[in-house]
Amino acid sequence: MPMPLEYRQASADFDRFMKDLVTTSMLTSSHQAYTMLQAVFYVFRRRLTVAEAIAFAGVLPPVLRAIFVSDWRPEEPQLPFVARDELQKEIRAFRYDHNLSTETAVEDVAESLKRHVDARAFQRLLAGFAPEARHFWKLHPA
C-alpha cells in the first residue's frame, strides 16, 4: 500500500493550519498560536472519556492528532464541562508564562479547525458526544 497522502503532506498541511490560526486569532506568531492550540486541545481532552478522545483524535489531520494526544495521561480523572469563562481561565493557565491565548481561544481554534478537517466526519463525531462537548466547538458571536 502506498503511503497515505495525509502523511506525505502532513507538514505542509500543518503549516497552512497554523497560518490560518495566526490570522484567525490575530496573534503575532505561530509560537503563540501553537500554545493556544495546545491549551484548547488539553482543556477539551480532559473532559472526554478515553474512547471519545481517541475518536476525536481520529478526525484530526496527522500533526493536529499528534498534538491532541501529546503528553496525555489517560489515567487522569475526567473533568466536567463548566461555563465558557471557566474553560477560558483554564486555557489561559496552561503554560501560563508562555501563553498569550486570546479571549476567544476556543472559537479561534474551532474556526480554523472547520477549514482543515473533514466537516462531515467532524460533525458526525460530535453528534455522538454529550451536548457540552458539542457546545465546546460551537462558534459563538464575539
Automatic annotation (TrEMBL):
Name under which the protein is recorded: DUF2267 domain-containing protein
Pfam assignment, any one: DUF2267
Gene3D superfamilies named among the record's database cross-references: Uncharacterized conserved protein DUF2267
Domain of life of the source: Bacteria
InterPro entries assigned to the protein according to its UniProt record, in alphabetical order: DUF2267, DUF2267_sf
Organism: Rhizobium glycinendophyticum
